[in-house]
Amino acid sequence: MQAYQTLVKELREIALLGSINSLLSWDEHVNLPQSGAPHRAEQEALIARLHHERFTSPRIGELLAQLESSDLVKDPESDAAANVRNARRDYDRATKVPTELVEEMTKTAVLAQHAWVEARKKSEFKIFQPWLDNTVELKKREAGYVGWKDHIYDALLDPYEPGESTANLRRVFESLRDPLIELIGKIAESGKRAPVEVLEGSFPTNLQEKFGRIGAAAIGFDFDAGRLDTTVHPFCSGIAGGDTRITTRYNEQSFIESFMGVLHETGHALYEQGLPKTEHFGEPIADAISLGIHESQSRLWENLVGRRKSFWRHFLPKAREVFGSSLKNVNEDTWYFAINEITPSFIRVESDEATYNLHILLRFQLEQALVTDELKASDLPAAWNERMKKYLGITPPNDAQGCLQDIHWSMGSIGYFATYTLGNLYAAQFYEQAATDLGDLDAMFSRGEFLPLLKWLREKIHRHGRRYTAGQLVQRVTGKPLSAEPLLNHLRAKAKELYAV
Amino acid sequence: MQAYQTLVKELREIALLGSINSLLSWDEHVNLPQSGAPHRAEQEALIARLHHERFTSPRIGELLAQLESSDLVKDPESDAAANVRNARRDYDRATKVPTELVEEMTKTAVLAQHAWVEARKKSEFKIFQPWLDNTVELKKREAGYVGWKDHIYDALLDPYEPGESTANLRRVFESLRDPLIELIGKIAESGKRAPVEVLEGSFPTNLQEKFGRIGAAAIGFDFDAGRLDTTVHPFCSGIAGGDTRITTRYNEQSFIESFMGVLHETGHALYEQGLPKTEHFGEPIADAISLGIHESQSRLWENLVGRRKSFWRHFLPKAREVFGSSLKNVNEDTWYFAINEITPSFIRVESDEATYNLHILLRFQLEQALVTDELKASDLPAAWNERMKKYLGITPPNDAQGCLQDIHWSMGSIGYFATYTLGNLYAAQFYEQAATDLGDLDAMFSRGEFLPLLKWLREKIHRHGRRYTAGQLVQRVTGKPLSAEPLLNHLRAKAKELYAV
Predict the structure, then answer these.
(1) Known catalytic residue: B62?
(2) pLDDT tens column, B329-371
(3) Which of A391, A485, B36, B61 could crosslink A242 through cysteines, CB 3.0-4.6 Å?
(4) Is B374:B231 a contact under the CB 8 Å cutoff?
(5) From CA A11, how far away is CA A15, in angstroms rounded?
């Protein structure tokens, strides 16, 4: 018992260091004056080093070993067992990879990002290619230290989706792929076009911020325990139980991009605000399960809720109140169609709810091919374009709009992309279950009632932190393993309603 | 040489921890959501502990001892000598006071502040009295550990004004006191009243912010290396060479309070931006000398520059451009008189450039009486009111407007108040010298030229960091020791011009 208390106290201090770096990073992206950047990098590097040194100290390993053979962890669902199990997982991962390799990856990532920025700007893949080569080699070495059973890619998925396997993701993603290609093809053939021009108008930043706050508050964001600010690449930062910060950016010609972004980040924030971080700060059971589960919460509020007609039955009149004349001539049906356009495009982050997943599937396959040497870095542009043609029927005019569009690989984040589509899959599967459990959600949304759904998410998902793996959680909440059916059903229903296919 | 490099590297990391706490504190006062406060307190306490542990480690003492007997410190004005000398000073102070006493003072300060808030709210001194007793006892114990030669109060001044003595401050403050009482008395008898009503109008916050930015930039604040934000109790935070942040608050009925506050904080910020923090971050020579010297920079820009007629010859037309009709009927002379009202009042922070110093002198004397047991805490209200009557001719209607008005003593900051008047004294003495060296400053200000003065301050004061003590610096820059004459001359000239006395 004393060893457990010692471990929890130590994990708490380590997590405090982590939360300090969260604030340093939030401030870096929201407030930092230009000339403050070099100093901020030093601050963050120091805290990251202290964090790493303390978490990988042999003392943690000793405490874990002692606890693993104690009665305290007998019930696998108990706080203590969940904490010890997850701390072991993280400790092993952190200690298996040698410090020199971590440092080499960090340095390579900085240089690779510079090269990527230049390569994308000039649309010259050759500038980035040697760095992609290096990065893939480093990730293979990392995987070697971490170890894997079935597939090298398992070791790369692992930091983002603990316990997930390449085989399971392939099974689910493949059952999504062909039906989705078919559906998107039918939509393209339908000849119907969403009336996206109604989204354009004049929307002053201060009014967009006001409307964003109304939206975030309505779905349950606690502004006494959080903030909304402006940044270039929006994100959510869960600094502490009482301090969760979301960010957005504004385009004065259209408010929908910012508003859907706010719903997305609020989804992440509601998860953070619902985790048991006040009582259990620093313990694994107060943390998020995985990036996929985190993303499921943002996608659920953005897409499953925020792109519903019933949602806009409540919010379109509110938007008219805030923005006045720019929305005078839009009706609910037109608006609903406009924000649900489904059409192939080159850029992942600008793509819609349906085609988005094919952007991910493409990356998921290419990543595996790269780390198994089936694909050479030099052949990436051709492989990318070939798959874009096959999945979405379009060919990028250049690599900037093709295989150079995302920052992830330059940062060494191989294995990350899958979590976005996992988020969409989990979101749809959770939503389907919530609708079964709670009854007529659309009727509630039309009346502006979003808290019953939030309460359900808190009860079923948020409060458990990392007590279950993602796979255990989806089985527990929905009675089924992860499946592509709920997302496909959701997209098919929408396609039928809007495109009559 | 290697010991020196080791010391500098260690001091640099320790200072990085300090600058991380600066950001945590800045964010606490500018951004922190209400529910984030308990977590923030834990973050700050952890960093403060790590900072203290590293700085007081015996290793630092060993390095210092080794360096003190080396050739490296032979020239007392060299970087190395100044760094070793100041690091020794800070190290001795930090290691002399036992951790248990520091912790007791920290805890007492938290509780004493709570009691003070309640006491001030109810205007009941009795609620605060036992905490003042405790605080004085703790400060006496602290002084006992630190040690002193002539006066126990020397040990309490020391953290704020390194090397300053009670005897020297008494000498200067006493030569200020009687002439200032006489001058303020004459002004009161003159029957003239400043036309302060012209300061009132309608000044929207966004326009005040715009004008504040114009003012700060004009006197040299580098917005690429800093920010301006809103808070409740304005302050300046020098987080790093490239990251200095000022804050203000707004009153929509009058912009002058916020604007003079911005000039004040910009004065602090110009010092921070002028210290050699980029090349020498973490070394004592990159730090400010003392609170008094820091305050001299804020007071110089706020009072010596910002309350000048020539300053407003340039800025009143700019203010008219920004604020429009609210300033239509004000002329330069009226405005100049209005912002230079001199009249006795109860509250220090609302008092003017002249009477302010009597508020300080009163506190300076009472603090000494408290720590030498000449004054019992229970007799403080009577002693306070008696001195207010003697110095300013007025008696506070209650203790909330008397001896309970300031937070400082409840925080254990005894010895701090003196630095405010020291700031005024240094400011006047530096300004007098700058006018001698640079010629017609008023002509420059009228044309909006403030950078020659800033350049002079950078050259004479900022770039030296802690190479000299405050006493050495004032002697070096002005050829004289600290004196009350420049401030008295400045105030007398203003009184003559405005009140004809």
Answers:
(1) no
(2) 899 999 999 999 999 999 999 999 999 999 999 999 999 999 9
(3) B36
(4) no
(5) 6
Do A219 and A15 form a contact (C-beta atoms < 8 A)?
no
* DSSP per position, A32-57: --GGGHHHHHHHHHHHHHHHHHHHTS
Cβ of residue B487 closer than 8 Å to a chain A Cβ: no
Contact at CB, A35 and B225, closer than 8 angstroms: yes
Q: pLDDT tens across B107-166, in order?
A: 999 999 999 999 999 999 999 999 999 999 999 999 999 999 999 999 999 999 999 999
Query: Which residues of B are less than 8 Å from A16 in CB distance?
Result: 42-43, 46
Q: Is B448 helix (H, G, I), strand (E, B) or coil?
A: coil
Please list the residue range(s) of chain A that carry CATH number 1.10.1370.30. Answer: 196-341+426-470
What is the 8-class DSSP label of residue B36? G
Whether B269 contacts chain A with CB within 8 A = no
What's the alpha-carbon Rg for chain B, to the nearest Å? 23
Closest-CA distance of chain B to residue A244, Å: 8
A206 touches chain B (CB under 8 A): no
Percent of chain B's residues with pLDDT above 90:
98
For residue B448, give the nearest of B324, B313, B349 by alpha carbon. Answer: B313
Q: Which of B29, B51, B39, B32 is nearest to A47 (CA)?
A: B51
Q: Give the containing element (helix H, strand E) for A226.
A: strand A226-230
Handedness of CA A309, A311, A314, A316 (dihedral sign): negative
Chain B residues in contact with A281 by the CB 8 A cut-off are 39
**B424 phi, psi to nearest 5 deg:** -60, -40
B184, B358 contact by CB (below 8 A): yes
Instruction: Kindly list the residues from chain B whose CB atom is less than 8 angstroms away from the CB atom of residue A216.
Output: none
Which residues are paired to B311 by β-bridges?
Answer: none
Measured between beta carbons, the chain B residues lying within 8 angstroms of A46 are 13, 16-17, 20
Binning pLDDT at 50, 70 and 90, where does residue A274 land? very high
Q: How many CB atoms lie within 10 A of CB A18?
A: 16
Q: A-chain residues within 8 Å CB-CB of B240?
A: 36, 39-40
* Tens-digit pLDDT profile for residues A113-138: 999 999 999 999 999 999 999 999 99
The one catalytic residue in B10, B265, B341, B367 is B265
CB contact under 8 A, A43 and B16: yes
Q: What is the secondary structure of B294-308 as a DSSP string?
A: HHHHHHIIIIIITTS
Sequence-distant (≥ 6) Cβ neighbours of residue A81 within 8 angstroms: A72, A73, A74, A75
Distance from CA of B54 to the nearest CA of A (A): 13
Contact between B223 and A16 using a beta-carbon 8 Å cutoff = no
Per the CB < 8 A criterion, the answer to whether B313 and B445 are in contact is yes
Mean pLDDT (chain B, rounded): 97
Helix (H, G, I), strand (E, B) or coil at B151: coil
Q: Give the separation between CA A395 and CA A346, rounded to whole angstroms.
A: 8
Residues with Cβ within 8 Å of A446's Cβ and at least 6 positions away in sequence, in order, are A310, A313, A314
* Among the listed residues A395, A490, A389, A366, the one whose alpha carbon sits nearest the alpha carbon of residue A181: A389
Q: What ipTM describes this predicted complex?
A: 0.93
Distance of alpha carbon B139 from alpha carbon B143, whole angstroms: 6
Query: Residues in chain B, how many?
Result: 501
Chain A, residues 126-185, CB within 8 A of chain B, namely: none
Q: How many CB atoms lie within 10 A of CB A279?
A: 10
Residue B277 and residue B241: Cα distance in Å, rounded?
Answer: 5
Question: How many CB pairs (< 8 A) connect A and B?
Answer: 98
- Order across the sheet with B226-230: list the strands: B226-230, B243-248, B236-240
The pTM of this model reads 0.94
Question: In 10 A of CB B78, how many CB atoms?
Answer: 14
Statement: residue A325 has pLDDT above 90: no
* Domain A196-341+426-470: assigned CATH number: 1.10.1370.30
